[in-house]
Amino acid sequence: MAERTTRLWLALALLAVAMLRAAGPGALGQWPPLARAQTADLTPDPTPSAADANATSTPARPFVVAIDPGHGGTEVGAAHPSWEGAPPLREKDVNLAIALDLRDLLEARGYQVVMTRTMDTNVNVDGLDLNGDGVVNNDDDLQARVDIANQAHADVLVSIHNNGAADRSVRGTSVWYCADHPQGARARRLAQLLQQAFLAHLRGIGYSPLDQGANDDPPLHKPYGHLFVVGVKTPRVARPSEMPGVVGESLYVTNDREAALLAQEQVRQELAAAYRDAVVAFLEQPQ
Ligand SMILES: [Zn+2]
Fold first, then answer.
1. What are the strands, taking DSSP E only, across 118-252?
2. CA-CA distances (angstroms) from residue 258 to 172, 207, 254, 268?
3. Of all helices (H) and strands (E), which one includes residue 65?
4. pLDDT value at position 140?
5. Domain 64-284 has CATH 3.40.630.40
6. Cα(250) to centroid of ligand 1, in Å?
């Protein structure tokens, strides 16, 4: 009799285990009952949950802006040849200062910002052949910048530069885009907005900039005809940028008067505000 009872309980226990296994890992995960009670305690009361759903539908994804401070590290960019101040006026430093100001302005507006660099460094820090052309050079540094913007799924890409020329009398303000890019029409609009914002902000601080326009990139005579960071796929660009992008050339580092402007924090902040105004108008007032 005792042996039959033991067998009966053993059979019932095996049956219970079999039923739990048949129910799948979810059922086992909710065992023992104490765990279910804890889960139930964590379940939000349905009334406020429904109210929340009514008050705010799915929260909107913030705009994502990729900011690319041109050059950096071993890539100085343009530099004033006889700048007497300290530190020397180098394009890579000016670009970064404007970019960091722009980041603050966009984040204050609730945007998400991704920077290709935040310090005086190259972007392809590991020295990789990122575009797969068999050599490691500045093209790979540019590919690293594009990859960062693409991986962030940025809505726009702004590459921040200032210009340079062997003739120190040359000055001017311009923006560049690639009309052949799949997002070229939108990039053109962003370029025009940025050029207008540059001119307005520079005039606002009492300077009369030389308007060199918002331009398609062929006149720059870049390899394969296009800018790297905002241009199309070419033998040097393995993965082109996927969003509308522009290259801003706000002032000439090599011109005495414009270099003196770029050396002023207030002027750099005005240029950052110009980028902010253009990006905000582009993203928040779609055509
Ligand atoms: Zn540059």
1. 156-163, 173-177, 211-216, 245-252
2. 9, 9, 8, 11
3. strand 64-69
4. 98
5. yes
6. 10
DSSP run (H or E) holding 112: strand 112-115
Residues 96-105, mean pLDDT to the nearest whole number? 98
H-helix segments, 24-152: 25-29, 33-42, 46-55, 91-108, 138-151
Number of neighbours of residue 187 by Cβ within 10 angstroms: 30
For residue 263, with 0-12 CB atoms within 10 Å meaning exposed, 13-18 middle and 19 or more buried, which class applies?
middle
Residue 154 tokens read as 């940025």
Long-range contacts of 44-49 (CB under 8 A, 24+ apart): none
* Residue-wise pLDDT tens digits, 158-207: 999 999 999 999 999 999 999 999 999 999 999 999 999 999 999 999 99
- If you measure from the C-alpha of residue 28 to the centroid of ligand 1, how many angstroms do you get, rounded to a whole number? 61
> Domain boundaries in the chain?
2-55, 64-284
- The pTM assigned to this predicted structure is 0.79
- Please say whether the beta carbons of 94 and 162 come within 8 A: yes
pLDDT range class, residue 88, cuts 50, 70, 90: confident
d(CA 5, CA 258): 98
pLDDT at residue 16 in the model: 44
Tally of CB atoms within 10 A around 166? 7
- Ligand 1: distance of its center to the CA of 116 in Å? 14
> How far, in Å, CA of 284 to CA of 221, rounded?
33
Q: What CA–CA distances, in Å, run from 244 to 180, 190, 211?
A: 11, 8, 22
- Residue 242 is encoded by which pair of tokens? 């996927």
Separation of CA 78 and ligand 1 centre (Å): 6
Amino acid residing at 130? L
| Distance between Cα 2 and ligand 1 center (Å) | 91
